[in-house]
Amino acid sequence: MREKTERIVREWTDACDAEVSIAVLGGAWKPSILSLLGEHDVLRFGELSRLLLEPTARVLTRQLRELEDDGLITREVYRQVPPKVEYRLSDLGRGAQPLVDTLTRWGGEYAAHQRRMLAAPASVGDDERQKESVPQ
Amino acid sequence: MREKTERIVREWTDACDAEVSIAVLGGAWKPSILSLLGEHDVLRFGELSRLLLEPTARVLTRQLRELEDDGLITREVYRQVPPKVEYRLSDLGRGAQPLVDTLTRWGGEYAAHQRRMLAAPASVGDDERQKESVPQ
DNA sequence: CGGGATCCGTTTCGATACTG
DNA sequence: CAGTATCGAAACGGATCCCG
């Protein structure tokens, strides 16, 4: 487990369990990585890199390490030339798939909703924080 | 919408919709805030502050503003002395409740699983990244 | 009561260059 | 191919003081 994850698992009360999920899945690219590994079963470093539209190797490596440390994916190194490294979901990672799917679905709906908002010319009486009115 | 949220909604491809969810819900205390507003229907600033075990006012204010900007909660100001401000879920926020619940459930299970790992004395052959072995 | 202003340390992201 | 090393910029969480 990452130190950060461990701290949160230890110290936070049950009331905020959702924060644990955010701590584990909240890094850049992480949900996408889990999603792709869910679809493809096994992926090499370079394949992940291309599918994700090229985050820098530095960044991708760190996210993968963190997911590994938190137990969601496994990393298998083939000591050969040229090197080859395979990533898969662990049991824990497969257990997270429904959550990732839910994140994907809600995020898609939210993005679609907001894109409609962006497309629509701001109409009079639109809701740009006009609640500064005086209800009482 | 926050600038950050808007950037992500605009620029990311559909393949990474989950990142949108993380962008919106990924701040400290945010899932907890939504959770509490789901339970209590309406809460004042001070009530939220106490229920969350006292984040500083500065931090709580910022998270509430971001959630408001992203359209998940509403803020109603009563111009009286002493002041009174009420927070509620918006329609968008109510729509996020199933997602928050899923985050809470998975986070709870993950935390329980990892706490068992922490409690168990590390047994021989435990999995602290021993995959550096040579499969081929 | 419900903040705003200011400041700061840490974390995180990301670009560039290099390597077994 | 799959990284590592180094560096800079920015975002974030948080403390402290002040205010209508």
Automatic annotation (TrEMBL), chains A, B:
Domain of life: Bacteria
Start and end residues of each HTH hxlR-type domain: 16-115
InterPro entries: HTH_HxlR, WH-like_DNA-bd_sf, WH_DNA-bd_sf
Keywords: DNA-binding, Transcription, Transcription regulation
GO molecular function: DNA binding
PANTHER family on file: TRANSCRIPTIONAL REGULATOR, TRANSCRIPTIONAL REGULATOR, MARR FAMILY
UniProt protein name: Helix-turn-helix domain-containing protein
Organism: Microbacterium sp. A8/3-1
